[in-house]
Specification:
With 140 residues, the chain is mainly alpha-helical. It has five helices and three strands. It is 48% helix and 11% strand. The protein has a three-stranded antiparallel beta sheet with strand order 1-2-3. 20% of the residues are buried.
Length: 140
Amino acid sequence: MTEQQAGWYPDPSGDVSKLRYWNGVQWTNDFAPVQPSQSQACQGAAYAAPAYGQPPYQQPYSYAGSTDQTLRLVAFILCLVSTVSVGWTIIPLAWMIPMTVHCWGLYKGTKANTTGFGVCTLIFVNLVGGILLLVSRKDR
């Protein structure tokens, strides 16, 4: 153990029904029964959730009005049509597919609509779709 004070601690062998005495240097052969209220605390300490847990829940972006939803849906459809029509050239698919998927996230409300994404859509995917995203309300 690392510099822990002497005292009664849960038995390191895993037996939750007893406490063992730590003298500050090593475990002794002194045992004590766990009191009912201590038993619950010992079990909680022995089976605590790992420190690395899941990231906190992120609230979905605010619901866009019906006009914004329509603009975002039309922008997604235009991105999809552009991606399919340019698919024979293969190279643009490297950026068009991820941007079309992100555009779907904008429509569903799981991604943020930003000015930067609207400009990139305008330049790299579809002129009209990019303009529609720029006209739509921004989430950030």
